[in-house]
Amino acid sequence: MAGTLTFRYVTYLATTPEKVWHALTDPELSGAYWGHGNVSDWRPGSRWEHRRTDGSGIADVEGVVLESAPPTRLVTTWAEPGAPTGRGEPGVSTVTFGIEPYEEIVRLTLTHEDLADEAEREAAAGGWFAVLANLKTLLETGRPLPKEPWTMP
């Protein structure tokens, strides 16, 4: 059934929940490991944009902040630029970041749901694997991977 597929991924990081939250919500820092800056005031109901870091100001993804509970939970919609961005709208998926501290590490659970079909789920999975690997590397070493992982064939 369309719009019901989910991709979920869990990774563990040697960092703090506050640093993970900052890396997800700060435009400059998210741009360093993602190639796009995440731009919003991060209040529920606010718009957010996934803007290119090339200076063009182009947003390749847009959405609405559904939940914002720093530093443990962020939920947004995920949509094409110019399309409707509300939850439940056609073509709109939902992304949840769950950030759980455990002693000196963090469990980051990414859930991307309401995907239209298996091809969209596979594309999302490939992108998220690369982005989260780069996020983990940046937070644990102070620098992103030397080559953007999403450019690998």
Task: Kindly list the characteristics that best describe this protein.
single chain; 153 residues; alpha+beta; Alpha-D-Glucose-1,6-Bisphosphate, Chain A, domain 4; seven-stranded antiparallel beta sheet; 3 helices; 7 strands; 27% helix
Instruction: Please tell me how large the radius of gyration is.
Output: 15 Å
CATH architecture title: 2-Layer Sandwich
**Element-by-element helix/strand order:** EHHEEEEEEH
Q: Roughly what is the average pLDDT, rounded to an integer?
A: 95
Q: State the helicity in percent bands.
A: 25-40%
CATH class: Alpha Beta
Low-confidence stretches: none
What's the SSE blueprint?
Layout: E1 5-13, H1 17-25, H2 27-34, E2 36-39, E3 47-52, E4 59-69, E5 73-78, E6 93-102, E7 105-115, H3 118-141
Antiparallel strand pairs: 1-7, 2-3, 3-4, 4-5, 5-6, 6-7
Helix pairs in contact: 2-3
Structure summarized in a few sentences:
Helices cover 27% and strands 37% of the residues. The protein has 153 residues and is of the alpha+beta class.
Q: Your description of this structure?
A:
The protein is α+β, with helices and mostly antiparallel strands and 153 residues long. The protein has helices at 17-25, 27-34, 118-141; strands at 5-13, 36-39, 47-52, 59-69, 73-78, 93-102, 105-115. The chain has one domain (5-151): Alpha-D-Glucose-1,6-Bisphosphate, Chain A, domain 4, CATH 3.30.530. The protein has 3 helices and 7 strands. The longest helix has 24 residues, at 118-141. 27% of the residues are buried. The mean pLDDT is 95. This is Activator of Hsp90 ATPase homologue 1/2-like C-terminal domain-containing protein. Belongs to the AHA1 family. It holds the Pfam family AHSA1. InterPro entries: ASHA1/2-like_C, START-like_dom_sf.
